[in-house]
What does this fold into?
Amino acid sequence: MDVKTLLIAALAVSLAASLCMLIIFWTRRTYPGFGLWVAGHFCGAVCILLFILPRDQFPPWLTIILANYLWFASMMLNNRGSLLFRSRRISYGWEIAASVSFCALFAYFTYVEPNIAARLTVIAVYHGGFQLWTIAVLLMQRPAYFGSSDVLQVVSLGILVAIHTVRAEQVWISGGSLPHQVIALQPFVDMLILGVMVDTLLVILSHIMMNAQRLEYDYRLTQGRLEQDITQRQQAEAALRESTEKFRLAFDNANTGMCLVDLNGQILQVNSKMSAIFGYSTSQLERMNVNDLALPEDISISPHFIHAAVEGEVDSSTFEKHYRHQQGHIIYGQVSSSLVRDIEGHPWYFISQVQDITERKQAEAALNQLNIELEEAQRLAKVGSWDWEMATDTVTWSKELYRILDCDSAQPAPTYQQHSQLYTADSMARLEVAVTQAVTHGIPYEVDLERIQPDGSSQWIIGRGESEYDAQRRIVGLRGTCSDVTEHHRMEEALREQAIRDPLTGLFNRRYLDEILPRELHRCQRNGEPMAVAMLDIDHFKHFNDAYGHDAGDAVLRAIGDLLKGFLRASDIACRYGGEELAVILPGSTLNNAQIRLDDLRRAIMQLRVIYKADDLPTITVSIGIAAAGEQEVDAAALLDRADVALYQAKENGRNRVVVA
It folds into this structure.
């Protein structure tokens, strides 16, 4: 059989196979890459057609260069189709470079230096390179859906590589002139054409099988997924039915009112508890809007939340509203509402929970009223309350306590450790002893506390406290009250001053002298200090009163009292002993020092000018007796008696003098 006949047969087979693949491509499902295979096979058919043309009647670029390039292009399209079929992508750089170099070499060995052996070698190298690349892809990247079809194509492409290699080798071995080479290769050309034709059919068959096997794999995979989806859907439906049933049971048997509300505020469904709260039947409520029962001042609450939820600002909220019961009275409701969205995230409806908190609100109002009344009672009684939790060192004050202690009620109450800034050190020492007994032994206490105010004055507080216990009778804190007793304390001080002061002279009285002298005597003995006591008597005071009257005598006593208060030291104590007799206690003074100071006092009294009824009274003189305390002396009365004896000695010696016992 001649070459032309074989080529015509090969063309017919190639066209028929390509047409079959094209029909499959148009009418059946194919995967990416199958179209490139079809294009490659059509390139092969056109290549065979160009090989049939007489080379002496057509130019070499058509019958040699273009024909061989189309053959090579079919190899490149087959390779790219195999890569794409396996979801692999490469750039076009390799193919462009191969195409340009292939055509350049063929043009060179056709026009510049004609050489059929070189052209056959180029065909063997380029075809073999891409075919080996395709073989590597087929063998090394075999997806799970491939069977024997890729192996079939590997064998076919391997045979083609072998044919091209042997052909190129025979051309170089035969040598000689071109006609001689062609004659020498004629039997081999026949075998080559037949081999290429058979291999082409095998490659086409492998392409069809690969697509079919992938279709079958995808079908099985789809069926498996479908069965899995059906199972999952059935499970989801069962879970949905179970969830729906549970929701229905929870909805109907909830201890609080439950309702479903659409995006316009229309009530869709309610439970029996909701009906019991408002006094309407479920059918009546399901024809209402959420604001139909709300009082006018609360109508804007629900629409505001619905708008915010639909706009995506919030998903849930809890608020309180006033409602009117079916019987007309007002009820307080606490509403907890949440937006439910569909599977795509769009707002669907609201599920709301309503609790009747009327009793709680009434209890809160009653408690608030009691707190107001308690605060008012504390204000009127000027008593503030406090509570101390030891575990957290948290102190709570009433408003009245803030007012009593002049603290900012906007600030938290000071802790127990911060109390040192409120009271004097002596007060805190007494308070700490009392608090320790209270928290240790549960002993209630009442302590007088002194607080120095910003203006320097003292504020007196009575602090009372008792222990707080938990369920196990453990002391967990203290609670108590604080009362402002500053005025009371001042009144007591005033009464005490009146009890120990002589109203005429302003000096201490004899009662105070009897109280303070033993104490001062013990103090000086304890500290090792000297002390002197003096008795003063106004000379001839009885005759003075007889001559000028008792009012003039009182004026003299007041003047001497004022002089003593200015003349003596702060530590000295002057007392009116009785009548015109005065006593002076001089702590820290020795006998000599006391004698000098009291003699100065005597002269000062002589120089004293007393005006009575616009007239000067006569000069006043005094007699003074001084006694010093012994080192171990503790008898105040004996000390005072010695000073009194010295006073009488001064009188007997002529008055207006100082005599030391």
User: Anything to note?
Assistant: Residues 88 and 606 are 133 Å apart (CA to CA). The longest strand covers residues 330-341.
